Amino acid sequence: MTSSHEAKKQELPPTAWAVLGLLSFPGERTGYELKKWADSSLRFFYWSPAISQIYAELRRLEELGYAASARSGPEEARAKRRYAITDAGRAALAGWAADTAEAGPPVLKHGLLLRVWLGHLAEPERLRAMVGEHVERTREELAVVQEAMEQASGVPEWAFPALALRWSERQHLAELELAEALLGDLAGLSEAGAAGGVRPDSELVPEADAAGRQGDGDAPTPG
Fold this sequence. Notes:
Helix content: 55-70%
Number of helices: 9
Number of strands: 2
Largest sheet: 2 strands, antiparallel
Order of helices and strands: HHHHEEHHHHH
Strand content: under 5%
Structural class: mainly alpha
């Protein structure tokens, strides 16, 4: 591999490795097929790139010699370009997958919790309804995960993807438990407010601390 290729390898984003990872399983696939597979696997524990991103990464992987493609023959009504991983791509992917230093911590961006955090600006009923909708969506997603697990079950080549799906099933179950607990917390907060238990912001901190923090506009966090 040339030095320029080595430099490009170091700059590959995780999405490129994810696309190459999809190609590492047996068979050749079109970009559309890779997108479908990402939607039924990657999105449950990482994310599913847009079809435009998939094709952009496929072009990049081909330039590096990590993937190769060929158009289908005249036997198909519409010509399709199918992609496969190369030996160089498999070796590079194996090296990346074994490098724990690149894994990084998990990142949580929970849009619903951001709205709960701003609950003092929202109607309590609407906030509880949003959490309830989240519970229903999570149940639907859990059913999709479990369906994918059934499809992967018993297929030797999918043993490790099946483990990732099993983890995702547990994560969705935990998300359901957390969301249902949040509904209970919101209900309790509403009851406290109705009973006069929720005081104005200026009364939520001790008097001495209010002068030192609340008056200065400090955030209600330690430090």
